[in-house]
Amino acid sequence: MTNSTQPVLCLGEALIDVISRKDAEVEEHVGGSPLNVACGIAQLGHPTLMGSWFGEDQRGRMIERHLVNANVSVVEGSNKAKKTPIADAQVDENGQATYEFDLDWQVPSLPSADEVSHLHIGSFSATLAPGAADVKKAVDNSTGTVSYDPNARPSIMGSPEDVVPLVEELISESDLVKASDEDIAWFYGEETPIEEVMRRWLSLGASMVVATRGPWGAYAKIASDRDMLVVDPLTVDIGDTVGAGDSFMAGLISGLLDAGLLGGADAKERLRNARLSDIRGALHRAVITSGITVSRAGAYAPTMDEVEKVRSVDPLL
């Protein structure tokens, strides 16, 4: 595990996914990309904090119970919203989900930067006013490492032209950036090569950029190596894709924490100078965690025991 006893702080939305599938009853599940990442990191054995904005209503209590059960601590004041936000998720016959949102986003008072080893931000909460200004302030004040998953949400982010400048400003201050190929296509257009965007994000200041490509695995580029690493996905029977990208992000952060490449100022420098061989283990962990998640229904967060069980079956991972 990471040498730091200071927690990872995941900052962003925690909400209720109201999930509709054809010929099935509507279900309600705790969700939100940063929350899923927080639960994933905690289940992999790292001390984790969640800073968010939800209500003291029944749905808010569902969120708090979910976080506690995943061993995630909650930043005091995160439950002061007037009502708990919801995401209306429509899941098609292929397990793909599309979302509509009903929410308000603000940021509670956060612990001081020197109490946190790593800050993770992501999704629409990083760019949605009024909370986005406080997210940016947390990034500006960070003394450790920062990860960012832009996680495009067209229904709430507005137009790509409006949001890309905000996204790129956050990328310029992040050490690790992860996005799906679908995110990249929405931000920059389907005709823009993924590799071109990855190089752009590195030039903005990121030390490591990962693009996930679903059944085609993931691409990884780092600042100190001219080559790109391609990682194959885990072959599984798909339950649905809910939370797959968040599980990948959690596994990646966990692996990099354990490798000493995230979690403090020294780790920031080590990641900046890392080689592709240094990050391969973290990418394999990310592939395993996301593979386990898509084999289940919903945003399942695997434990390290489950990861090791998969690894024992396939020693190449």
UniProtKB/TrEMBL annotation:
<keyword id="KW-0418">Kinase</keyword>
<dbReference type="GO" id="GO:0005524">
    <property type="term" value="F:ATP binding"/>
</dbReference>
<dbReference type="GO" id="GO:0016301">
    <property type="term" value="F:kinase activity"/>
</dbReference>
<comment type="similarity">
    <text>Belongs to the carbohydrate kinase PfkB family.</text>
</comment>
<dbReference type="InterPro" id="IPR002173">
    <property type="entry name" value="Carboh/pur_kinase_PfkB_CS"/>
</dbReference>
<dbReference type="InterPro" id="IPR029056">
    <property type="entry name" value="Ribokinase-like"/>
</dbReference>
<dbReference type="InterPro" id="IPR050306">
    <property type="entry name" value="PfkB_Carbo_kinase"/>
</dbReference>
<feature type="domain" description="Carbohydrate kinase PfkB">
    <location>
        <begin position="8"/>
        <end position="302"/>
    </location>
</feature>
<keyword id="KW-0547">Nucleotide-binding</keyword>
<keyword id="KW-0808">Transferase</keyword>
<keyword id="KW-0067">ATP-binding</keyword>
<protein>
    <recommendedName>
        <fullName>Carbohydrate kinase PfkB domain-containing protein</fullName>
    </recommendedName>
</protein>
<dbReference type="InterPro" id="IPR011611">
    <property type="entry name" value="PfkB_dom"/>
</dbReference>
<dbReference type="Pfam" id="PF00294">
    <property type="entry name" value="PfkB"/>
</dbReference>
